[in-house]
């Protein structure tokens, strides 16, 4: 049939999937997807990751009226993938001093995990202001892949002399697993067990109410 008349571009979803990188030499591969306002680093001596505690709300650290960018990590201290990612993520603030980096325990901020769809951990989101713009989807979570992700999304180049050091293994994000209880998993198991018990009792009650079932049992 005849081609439809061109219309206004449709609005993109809030969380855009990270597309595969295009071959080198194309203009689109160099064009940043997110235009970040880089912060003034004058007077800042130490560039480090900030970890939110249970009483702090992520939205208090994101300014909806600005275009500055923040990389937020959702993790849990007993997840081995979060622990292996920790030293690499700890080094990022030094590689990108004009950006902000936050981390929060997803088990302590379950409402945020539901809101932003961070069901599995570790999960990394790039925010512009208070709006999530992109999600890190690579399974290889190293300093180099994180650098590439930030550069591809923002066009901001990392400092070339930054590497993962012994201090990055020590903190602030823990690289050693801690023992803990996954309360969400425990609640799910208890709920499922309760439902099975209820269904079993209910089925037995209905069987005894059906005419003829009781007599057959007595016989």
UniProtKB/TrEMBL annotation:
Residues 12-23 have a biased composition (Low complexity). InterPro entries: Thioredoxin-like_sf, Thioredoxin_domain, TXNDC15. Residues 1-33 are annotated as: Disordered. The chain crosses the membrane at residues 183-201. Residues 25-155 form the Thioredoxin domain. One of its GO terms (biological process) is cilium assembly. It comes from the Eukaryota. The keyword Heme does not apply. This is TXD15 protein. The lineage of its organism: Eukaryota, Metazoa, Chordata, Craniata, Vertebrata.
């Amino acid at each position: 049939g005849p081609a439809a008349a061109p219309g206004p571009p449709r609005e993109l979803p809030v969380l855009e999937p990270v597309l595969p990188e295009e071959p080198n030499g194309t203009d689109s591969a160099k064009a940043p997807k997110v235009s970040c306002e880089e912060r003034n680093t004058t007077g800042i001596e130490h560039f480090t990751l900030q970890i939110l505690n249970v009483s702090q709300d992520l939205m208090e650290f994101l300014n909806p009226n600005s275009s500055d960018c923040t990389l937020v990590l959702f993790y849990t201290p007993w997840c081995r993938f979060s622990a292996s990612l920790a030293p690499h993520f700890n080094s990022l603030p030094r590689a990108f001093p004009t950006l902000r980096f936050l981390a929060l325990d997803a088990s302590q901020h379950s409402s945020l995990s539901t809101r932003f769809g961070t069901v599995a951990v570790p999960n990394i989101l790039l925010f512009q202001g208070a709006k999530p713009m992109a999600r890190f989807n690579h399974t290889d979570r190293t300093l180099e892949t994180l650098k590439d992700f930030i550069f591809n999304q923002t066009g901001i180049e990392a400092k070339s002399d930054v590497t993962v050091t012994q201090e990055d293994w020590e903190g602030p994000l823990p690289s050693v697993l801690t023992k803990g209880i996954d309360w969400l998993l425990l609640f799910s198991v208890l709920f499922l067990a309760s439902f099975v018990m209820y269904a079993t009792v209910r089925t037995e009650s209905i069987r005894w109410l059906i005419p003829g079932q009781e007599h057959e049992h007595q016989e």
